[in-house]
Batch of 4 targets.
Target 1
Amino acid sequence: MTDAIWTGLINLVGNPHTMGLMLIAVMIGIIVGATPGIGGRLSIALAIPFVFGMDMTQGAVFLLTMHAVNGTSGQISSIMFGVPGDGDDAATTIDGYPMAKKGEAGRALGASITASGVGGIIGAGVFAVMIPLLEPVVLAFSPAEFFLLAILGITFIAFLAGKGQIFKGIIVGLFGMMLATVGMDPQTGTARYAGDYLFLWDGVSIVTCVLAVFAVPEMIALASRGGSISSLSPELARFSYRQLFQGVMDVPRHWFLVIRTSIIGAVIGMIPGLGGSAAAWMCYGHAVQSSKTPERFGKGAVEGVIAPETASNAKEGGSLLPTLFFGIPGSSGMAVMMGAFLILGIQPGPAMMTQNLDLVWTLIWALVVGNIIAVSFLLFVTRWVALLTFINGAVIVPFILVLVSVGAYANEGQWENLVILMIISFIGWGLMRYDWPRAPFVIGLVLGKIAEESLHKALGLWGTSFFTRPLSLVLIALIVATIGFALYNNLRGKNAMPVGAGS
Amino acid sequence: MNLLSKSALSFVALAASTGAAQAQDGAAFYNGKTVNYIVATAPGGGYDTYGRLVAEYMQKYLPGSTFVVRNMPGAGHLIGTNAIYAAKPDGLTLGTFNTGLVYNQIVGNEGIKFDLNKFSWVGKAAADPRVFMVAAQSPIKSWADLVASKEPLNFSTAGVGSASYVETVILTRTLKLPIRMQTGYNGSDDQLAMRRGEITGTIASRSSIDQFVKNGYGRMIAQIGGIEKDVPQLKTLVKAGSGQELLDLIESQSEIARLTAAAPGVPAPQLAALRDAYRKSMEDKDLQARAEKLGLPVEPAYGEEIAKMIATALKQTPETAALLKEAMEKPKK
């Protein structure tokens, strides 16, 4: 085993050609990740023709690195402009953008980029440690557990809404869950709330909703307020490499949180069917819930940036596990990756462990090295990128709105999503204008769908007896504890001044 | 040789030469043109992979053309298929979609804005036989075990109304199998569910579960269509009886997979050029080598042949259509 670890590393860094390809892959991954609406899945699909000539190791390293660093650059636009690239970046927006508004874009970027990198590396570590435990852990989660995990995630809304806002939070969360019911009913095959519009059969596009609820209202506010995104001038904000460095150092300062959210992210990534957005949101919820000062969240708490970013990169290591060792892809991105592995002559499946262990370790190292390269590069360039937050809004708003529209369209390639974007933007703007929390909306939308689908499956398989499965009981206990804790917190704080937790 | 056969022969020769001439005229049309190739699903997956492969090689055999692959996912291939059908019939828009839409058309489901009989068929790349597969740890070892099972067995399908759902309903009802359907297993959800043991088996296209079986997680107990000899054909296992037409329908369906089609009414020269380029692509050694690497079988058929196959599949007696409709009725709880 130890032999394989070092052979794996030497295969990677000892070969200049492989390292060169990896550098290219990191650059492509960063660019694709920074563009809203274009997922990593598409970039792998497009890269497949290029891997035909490559040998097994190089091709696999190339594709994996490209995929793994995707999440690292996604947060740049979420933090600086409040434009999340996809569902998981939206969690970063909630505290990242307020930080940019306070003139701390550099710190937020430093923290989030470092957190991504560290998360990716810890995720690779979890990958390595979990190999022997893969089978029992992954197979323990069935639709019954998916349903309860989704419900657990939804109960985090109680914390995200902030004190005194719990009912507003629940209303917004229910609205999100309501939108999640648009589309084909999984049980009867009837189109719900779709009218004559076929594009609604698959439900409302999450990326479009996220852009509408976060990005557009912020741009409207910026345009009407005037000035730049940062309320402070660069001089007053003391914008410099130092601020960036301060952000980098925020990560070790919250080391315990970083480790917890990385592990949660990696484990959620391992379990096929929950999806990446769930990892980021659950870790964000966990950060708020476990904080001694939860009222700071939503207004620019650096932990709110660190938690989702560690999770979203850590999950990449996790999601590779079932793909490699079962030959069963954990996500749609991994399904494309598996197709590419077959081209390269890699046969994913249990035989990987015995026949291709060197390659497995090379891939784990590729996750580590790829993240390090991406982080160093991004930390170097963000010094200049972050300056955009000090530019006059009048110049920047039109560009961002174009970026938002392209993102909403490109994700599914359907123009109808632009109409949805406009409609939901009104709602998003209303929520912001009247100081209602917006995060519960996305949680309701993302987890509502998972909850519904897995509830149907669980009931079909076991009837109501699924609630008494051992793991189900543990999750139910967690849900009850979360709700109890939230109620206690809210009732205790009832007489205190309600704190307007922005979003 | 008498006069009649001579003239018949020369007629055939003439027809062939005009066909080739048309294809040549058509090919000239494509010089400098951009062709949209619509894939009715998201990137990744079988349709996308076949689609991109076909587009790449058709571009090679239509000199001067540029093929652009566009993914138009949604509503179980309906959005993309409607778009291909509604495109301007100039031969510059073609695409690929699920053959399972044949079922939807026979029954007349909502959302269909096309007539499969009228498409300008270019070709098909593969056959996709269906198999009954059960999880390795299940006590079901053979078809006889399945039929004899006292307990209903959990079989997974994709969403209600999908081709996998329709085929499972048809087979379960006409053969009176002890199967309880669990819907909503998309992508490879079913494979993980079989590993966990909550699902006993599934009726799937052979190519989609090939890897799973090779990894030792499942076994195939019966097959519908295809040329493989390692699994007994369902036909040899069941007595012919009522509902035979439906089994035939599934079999004919499995013969036509990974289609390429264009809107109705594409001018003859362009269509001839497209078919010609498609044929050359399928016969290309490079394409075959790459497809093999991808684990994609290539069993092509072309043009008119496809149109005939589709027409046969669609031409069902009212009784069969009624049976199918009944099978596709929404489950009542």
Target 2
Amino acid sequence: MSGISQIFGKELTRVFRDRKMIFSIFLLPVIIMIGIMTLVSHLSSSAQEDVKAHNSIVYIQNAPAGFEEFIKTVDKNCEIFAVNDWDSAKEMIKNGDADLLIEFPEDFVNMVSGYHAGDVVPQIKTYYNPSEDYSSAAYEAISTGALEVYRQALLSQRVDDMASLSVFTVNSDNPDMIIQDEEKAGGKMLGMMLPYFVTILLFAGAMGIGTDMVAGEKERGTMASLLVSPVKRSSIVLGKVFALMTISGVSSVIYVGAMVAFMPQMMGQGGLGLNLTLNSKQIAMLAALLISIAFLYSAIIVLFSVFAKTVKEASSYVMPVYMLILVLGITTMFTTKAPQEWSYMVPIYNTSLTLQGILTQEVTMMHYGMTLGITLVLGAVLVGVIAKAFESEKVMAI
Amino acid sequence: MIQIKGLTKIYKLNKKQMKESKTTNPMKTAVDDLSLTAKPGEIYGLLGPNGAGKTTTLRCISTIIKPTKGEIYVSGHEVQKEPEKVRGKIGFLTGDIKLDPQFSVDYMFNFFGRIHNIPEEKLKARKEELFSYFEIKDFSHKKIKELSTGMAQKAAIAVCLVHDPEIVIFDEPTNGLDVVTARSVTDYLKKLKNEGKLVIISTHVMSEAEKICDRIGIIIDGSKVAEGNLEEILHETNTGDLEDAFFELYRNKKGGK
């Protein structure tokens, strides 16, 4: 076992003594992430405000007298025009020059006022362009809002007791309608995102350093000096894998910490409404699982780096693996069915499931144990394979 | 003591390598049934042209590569059975082995000292001795990447001797060094020998072999064609100097071509 701690120490020293490395590994990704998220949320909120501030342009054909008033009650700044040429009005909607087109039947007022049971019910048609934000907003406000108010108003002229028409209401006065475990709900939301983020963070954090740690040493010719020292190959491998785990762990802690701290800036006001409280059992389970995932990922990265001759080659080997792991992480975001028993046997995929399960408190101890065991065993097997590869003069190219 | 018994090393060439060496045979015998014994208190020189198998032999002794056939005992430990023990007894240096460029000479020296489990006190004393001998003190705090070739080579030599090894293996010890540094290295090798250690080097420089080696093994095409001290080899080949002796042996081996 001697040698592991020295090699571990050396690898960490290499990273933590170098200001440039600290910046590029730990700070830069965080700064970029926060910058992009803040920018995106800023742009989207200003886009929303722009839509709100916009005066809708509405064209109406055969508008009955007094209808404009109803529109003004919903959207008082909207500009209303009568349709002169039907086709050009449609064209304007298509081009985004107008937001909404409302078509009343020619004798709408008479049809309504002279209605008898069995007559044709008059139809109002509205046209809008869903790829234009202004148009969508106008459709929402007027087509579903103002017209409904207008209908109610006309209806009240025809029927004396409006309440008799509604028969019953649903939840018109029931503030307590949502019954859920707040913790579980918060966990559900976070459980959807966390496995995905953990994957990105742990893997991406280790990728650059991991390839340099092994393929880089081969490329620079410094690996051989370790290989002629009386240290077991497996100790060299473990020293490096543990160092990589630590680095990826530290970088993901910084990342998660920054995300939590800057969440309000990144998500705009209100955030996501995440209210997650973890009990100590959950924290312990998460910690053990995250450490074992970091171990597995580090082993995977080192494994691919061992077979590469240069850092560049190693990066191109590791990239597809990263993609695959990302895809496995995403799949758990969109599964609603309870996972099958066998899915806890699939490495990497099972860690995403279990992470989610811990947060929603739905994971069983059996599944947790299975996931933890498989992850650790696979990591250990990979370390064994790497150590074997270290023995091979062909792989080490010395 | 190093005992090599019937060492054979066959490399498998890939297509690119086969094309480069213009052959259709994917098997290349680098060392062919080589046996030799080198004892403590001597400098043993493996002399031969490029590609003769000198470096391959030294790498097999150092456990970096594995023999295809044969056995090698280093201080009684077989290289394939107890590689860690063998590596603990030797100091191995070649131009291909480099120190981590981001670290200072001091750090690398301490790092390898700890890898070899040397107590702190002893490590300090070793550092004092080696750094003053090779005049490293002035730049020991500098990173390896900031050093000149000669300084880096000196640093590498000091680091490889940190554990005061019984056996020192040098592949082309003076390659790429200026005259002054080369002299200090060969002088140090003699010092090691006088301390009773075994030094085994490879070289293609005749004058170097003549001057510092107690015994010389001449290798051509992976086989040992002559062995002994300078007089014995000259006597055997009936020549006046090592270069003539070498060409005599070379002609014989290549069938007078």
Target 3
Amino acid sequence: MINWTTLGIFIALFLLVTVIGFVASRWRRGDMQELNEWGLGGRRFGTTITWFLLGGDLYTAYTFIAVPAAVFAAGAYGFFAVPYTIIVYPLVFVVMPRLWAVSKKHGYITTADFVKGRFDSRWLALAVSATGILATMPYIALQLVGMQTIIGALGITGTTTLTKDLPLIIAFIILAVYTYSSGLRAPALIALVKDLLIYIAVIAIIIVVPLNLGGFGAMFKAVPAAKLTLSAPLVNQYWTLALGSALALFLYPHSITGVLSSKSGNVVKRNAALLPAYSMVLALLALIGFMAIADKIAPTKTVVNGFHVMTANDVVPALIMKNFDPWFVGVAFAAIAIGALVPAAVMSIAASNTFTRNIYKEFFRPNASNREESEVAKVVSLFVKAGALAFIFFVPVQNALDFQLLGGIWVLQTLPPVILGLYTRWFHRWGLLIGWAAGMVGSSYLVSYATNAANSKGLINALTITHSQFSMIDPAVPFKAYIGVVGLLLNLVVTVVFSLIFNALRVSNGKDATVTADYADTGEESAVAISSTLVQPAEE
Amino acid sequence: MATQPTGGRARQLWLLLLVPAVIVPLIVPIYNSVNPELAGIPFFYWFQFLWIIVSSVLIGIVYFAVRDRQTPTSK
């Protein structure tokens, strides 16, 4: 059932925000011929823009739909997103200024660029860029699921085979058209408007709903005691999920873009101190899961204004519809949909840029013109989104959150060359490559194993595993952990062993293009601003 | 993990302040309980909210400390 007030407000806001960005991106065209400069804007961004860019990496459908859904379904367990966002910023503070400094010095714009320069290995760089692209797909899938949920809640759906998938099809088309035509500049330009809309929606929800429920205390009283804290076996999953997610976040191509586009290492640090404001809101949003429990919303039973709640994902829109007037539902839904659309666009552009720069140009067309690069990037961004769609249809996840965890599992395997590589060159390039392969194969195997074994258990269980089932450890030790962390450990062990072997055999470890001083974060600001605006991959 | 020569020892010592910000949230048994409640909110939740603030303050302190100490070594 469609509420026309809600739908009208939704479409109006949605168009307003996207058109603003679109017009703005046309307004100063001509600055954007170089694909090399596409996302870094000449490394000129100060604290404010960087804050929005980096914050946008967290403020996605993950925050609005997936985390509340996880808390709704699994209680305290789903709250792991909070320690995740607590520990990510100190890590950013320490590590990222080094990456910024060396990238500035050598003109790197992707992590694969750095790895190639540092370890003199195009194959290791290929592994890093291919993993980044692969890992981005399920993360985009999560955004598509978020948009799908909202479009479904708007009532644009049906029960026949064709109309059942209508919300997902619409979500995909909007994302594809938006990215293809506006490039990266629009998302950056509308970041401020977008976040304003999001803040309004978030603040209203976290004030009004608890008031309706009789306060936070009453809300927690309504939650079954078993959901309020972690049972013993979940403790290790909880912290490994937090740690793994935190280590993964800034390995994704789109997050690196946000870091490298800032104008100094100091800006990165300042943001690490300011971004926890986002964590606070994420934690409050996570509690929406409990609000939905207290408000007696139940999948397959609850129907709000004709919207039939089917899965845990649906509880957020249902809660909003139950507690707000139709016009505000439109505002909140627009905020969530745009909050999924814009990061998804940034993700797919960052991934396709990595492809163009580190795979296409490196291995196929070294002499490709800027224009050819742009065209390739545009087409590849469509493939990346199609890949995301394939994940939705073919990967049997229990919960939207699983998509983000799946991406994390893969992208974590690039940590040794990218992050440890910032500190040491002791590891051998071939050792790193074999370690990466072991991590990828090992963790993918565990994923398929866990997915089959955990099948009906639901939720995040699908992507964590009981070690005792995986005969490495005594079956009597029930140590459950996030597969990403298990895979990373395997990766590190294999990397170290093979590095020892290759170093002992004196196998050539290539030539390091960087020197120690390159990593020093001097606090110096970027001297030149090459182009004054964000550049999009393809515009005539 | 050693930081680079910039800023020297003093700078590295300041970074130690970040250790509790990262480690404490990972030691789940510290906060995995309902009591003590705060205004009806279980310990598990208000502790983690509190730690968002603590870790933000710690990063802030380190930022100002490190920023002042790194200028002399700039090239």
Target 4
Amino acid sequence: MMFDAPRREERAGPGKAETLEFIAFMGALCLFFSTLEYLFPKPFPFFRLGLANLPVLLTIKLVRARYVLLLVLLKVLGHGLINGTLASYVFLFSFGGSFASAVAMLAAYRLGGRNISLVGISVFGAIASNVVQIYLSVTFIFGLTAWVIAPLFVGLGVFSGVLVGLFAQQFYEQSRWLGGIRAYFAAS
Amino acid sequence: MPTLQPRETFLGRHFAPHHLFLTGALLIPAFLFQPNLVVRVAQVLLFAFLATVNGKRIKWMYFVIMVSSITIFNLFTPFGEILFTVGPLTVTLGALRSGLEKGFTIVGLVFVSLASIRPDLRLPGRLGGMIGRVFYYFERVIEGKKHIRPRRLIESLDEVLFDLYQPGERRSTTREALRPTSSVGYVVMGVLLSVNWILVFVTSPLPF
């Protein structure tokens, strides 16, 4: 006698519509955290702490890669619309940096599995984002001489990646809200 | 701090968001094809004014640093007539002009974007619908922000998040009707586009 495997819709947990709703909510959190960046002093004019990356970092462990990439797209589009930078180089930098970061974090999570913490994943993302943004600034804005600032920017990126990763790790372990979300997505 | 609440501005009163976006999109080629550096700088100032009229706050220092740093980096690749030397650096006319052009172009594009894009601009399709959901939740999160306490950050964040989103739920959203472009808006649009495009042809060298 043969038994069919249960269909995806019949299992407990989220379907596509629920996952998309969750991604929309996390997109809103990305925008919220990017507004919080304004509260922190910047040591350099082009430096960003990367707080908007926090929801992306938390989502990586919950949903499939394509939903993480959708979240990144919503984050950069939403940011471009709210700040009015959608048609400028700022959007290009945000787009390039955010997607490079997401791909690096997904790869780190996929390859590292349980051996890599959110701090490690965050650092990989920050380095990828900074390298791509330096590449874009060399190509489109400053020219080849701008490579001299690369070590400083990558260093700052690692520093901010560690900070964001530490907070993400703490939130991941302590938040009751996220605990509920994790249980819900684990059921799928 | 940016929010979704559009300020009551001149451009907000007289332009539908998609018409404002279209105006910006048509201004960009008129700006990029402008061969005269002085006119281009004047356009940058015009776009900065329009961005301010659109309710955006411009961080002038950021843009001054931007143009200066782009120009300085360009000076390291000298070409053209030598103007003067500062220590080991030879400042040439070609590199200086190229750096200023690049710097003002990049900053001008940011100002056009700030002037022509508003949060109520609706993107088409399913992605546009998703952005609408993101903005709906963003407004709720901003409302809940006042309950977040830095001293008990995770705990207070949890309370706000529980209130805003429970797994599996879907809250309904309603979209407000957009204000149409007024006749004043169409006139402003026509003047802006005419002046900027006429300047391209007036300042370009004749092909014959």
